Amino acid sequence: MKQCIFCKISKIEKMILESDNFIFFKDKYPVVKDKHFLLAPKAHIREEKEIDQDLWEEYQDMCQKAYQYVETKCKAKPLTFIHPPQMQTVYHLHRHYIAGVFGREGVKKALIEYYKQVS
Predict the structure, then answer these.
(1) pTM (2 decimals)?
(2) Are 45 and 93 in contact (CB under 8 A)?
């Protein structure tokens, strides 16, 4: 997909972790500075359910490595989530990893601020 920024990102961003089919990198519009990361497939995939069975193990491995990276680097267990397709600002699957303790209201506030930045 020509206009999808995540389809181009492997060429323009410094990767923290990379596998044959997935990339892990700092979010350009972080909810929490220096503690917000993204995991995305290199191929244009919209939802997790579209990941082929033969890539599922690699995806799970990258999810685990990303989680451990954030936990180690930020000294806090990360909140991880995927926006539902109707709430995505980039229509390409991406899992967020944000270090810290948020609670429901903290997540709500952080997401509101995030959407102000990207809108």
Answers:
(1) 0.81
(2) yes
